[in-house]
Amino acid sequence: MISRRDFLQVGMAASALLGTSGFGNWARLAAQQRLTQDQLLQFETFGNVSLIHVTDIHAQLKPIYFREPSVNIGVGGNKGAVPHVTGAEFRKLYGIEDGSPSHYALSSGDFASLAQAYGRVGGMDRVATVIKAIRADRPDAILLDGGDTWHGSYTCLKTEGQDMVNVMNALEPDAMTFHWEFTLGSDRVKELVESLPFAALGQNIFDAEWDEPTEIFPPYKMFERGGTKIAVIGQAFPYMPIANPGWMFPEYAFGIRDENMQAMVDEVRAAGAECVVVLSHNGFDVDKKMATVVSGIDVILSGHTHDALPEPAVSGETLIFPSGSNGKFVTRIDLDIRDGRMMGYRSKLIPIFSDVISPDADMTALIDEQRAPFEADMAEVIGQTDSLLYRRGNFNGTWDDLICDALLAERDAEIALSPGVRWGPSLIPGQDITREDIFNVTSMTYGKAYRTEMTGEFLKVVLEDVADNIFNPDPYYQQGGDMVRTGGLGYHIDVREPQGSRIGNMTLLNTGEPIDPARNYVVAGWASVNEDTEGPQIWDVVESHIAKMGTVTVNRDNNNSVVVTGV
Amino acid sequence: MELTRRKLLALGSGAMALSSLTGLPAFASMMDDAIAKLTGGADLGEGAVTITAPEIAENGNTVPIEVSAPGAVAITVYADGNPVPNVATFKFGPLAASRSASTRIRLATTQNVVAIAQMEDGSFQKASANVKVTIGGCGG
């Protein structure tokens, strides 16, 4: 008898063979030098239920460039497994032709020249066009937002998320879950959530005082569509008060809480759900593990780690769909749900090529309305870049090098630390750097740039601690994100070692001398989760530095001084 | 600003511990001694007692845990990295409808929280959960 797992894999192989995912077609289309909106949207409607997934938009309303990582190390059981496969290896794995649109959308390598050829990606007016087209096929498609929506831009920071709420409401989502939203502070989160015309879900969002579920964030919502019942269970980012400032939302506790997830799955199944979907902000590897611990989940819509895969991954008996970030992708999943179970699926990760997909005029107008009060301030040109500026990757990207150099210079420090977040669009050589661009890679509600002293011993503790949050072989102990970015400090890291033994050869780049555990070093950084942090805002620090440089050419010494082994 | 080391230690989790540098907690053997004293050196079974704890503590000063063991007369909780590993003992009478308890405990550092259940037949059961206490990373 064919097992459920075999069935899912056969389904995937058939879909690849028939090209129903649309994925295999892109390279051929590219070879013919044409790519149209119809081809990007082409989808043979299947089954009786459609899901639409967007996630980690990070408030990017307008088209941007976004380079995928070239370094994304998998550890433990995930070594060498997707999404820890990058660049040419990734293209080989999925049969993607070099230089094709899929190469540009999904993998790193030759990014700057491909960006010139294929143009920007994303833009919520293009996303609106795609969602409308899917709804034209399937009017009752369920639109689900995986969170990290109300954070990441100038307008989002200034309006405390209102711009994104207005834009997303116009798309009429059915449910949402959360992460960076909480950094607006719990009062603002509550105010916005209570205004939402859709469900704010999180089975793992608990009241911190009593460690019990909240009323404002229900665990799940049931949908009756296509003659069946689908349950959507929300899973917020589990490590909010650890990775972000807990003092901003002290009323809430999080965690993975997979035992409660199992209870919720059992509850919705008992209530008649024939299909269980988890709208997750766990991160890909955590989702993969959760699918093997919790039984009865059909589909996980995966967010947080910003991965984009052209086909779902199968873990246990669950399909996992990671849908990228920054508005670059929309995933459509059609499901055939009959006789109490999911019988088949067809899916497509739709890349939002901004020059190919026409913007929805109403949405363009709504976006411009949000931006209008700030447009002049945002558009101011601060400098130009000769270098490709990007962030994604386990260690310093060029944006991080530039930010660390700004901290060293503007704050007169020996060592700079910059957070290993995964958001922040790219700029290609020759582009102006506007104030908006700087906010896109720095904006947050706790952006003050501190200047302090740390001993060499403590610096090692910081590096070891952050490294274990990324390279712990058990995904449940990983928080997502990447290694803390360093300026003026070189080190070696062996990712296979346990916490306390990964980091060695720490060097002060300025002098080439080894870091002395007992000596104090002047350290500048930003995004401290400490409530009393003082200093200028990081975007002002970076702007001042770029203005002085005029044209930015990134010095890669910071990145090249990090030596990685154990991969 | 004056960002003291003490404040840095308080980042995010209240109890960021330098002992994370030293590998295994030094107090583990104290816990083993305490367990041996409780059980008289009897074999420890597994499966009948469960412990629920967060994988990573949001605040090391107050970590919510729950222990459950149907058929237990007592459950003792230890934290093997605390200076005093004994945390609590919950006793259940014959009429207790539910042999489970939840509380909050303070954890000095990343360590194992261990539950030893004494069953009605006098045998002992063990369950363990590793709870990480961290200064935290930076999310996606």
Task: Explain how this protein is built.
- The complex is a heterodimer of chains A (567) and B (140).
- Chain A is α/β, with parallel strands linked by helices and 567 residues long.
- Chain A has 20 helices and 26 strands.
- Chain A has two domains: 4-368, Metallo-dependent phosphatases (Purple Acid Phosphatase, chain A, domain 2); 380-565, 5'-Nucleotidase, C-terminal domain (5'-nucleotidase,  domain 2).
- In chain A, the strands form six sheets. A six-stranded mixed beta sheet of chain A has the order 4-3-2-1-14-15. A six-stranded mixed beta sheet of chain A has the order 7-8-10-11-13-12, with helices on both faces.
- In chain A, a hairpin with a 4-residue loop joins strand 22 (503-508) and strand 23.
- Chain A is globular, with a radius of gyration of 23 Å.
- Helices cover 12% and strands 34% of the residues of chain B.
- In chain B, strands 1-8-7-4-5 form a five-stranded mixed beta sheet, with helices on one face.
- Chain B contains two helices and eight strands, in the order H-H-E-E-E-E-E-E-E-E.
- Chain B has one domain: SoxY domain (Immunoglobulin-like, Sandwich).
- The interface between A and B is large, with 66 and 33 residues.
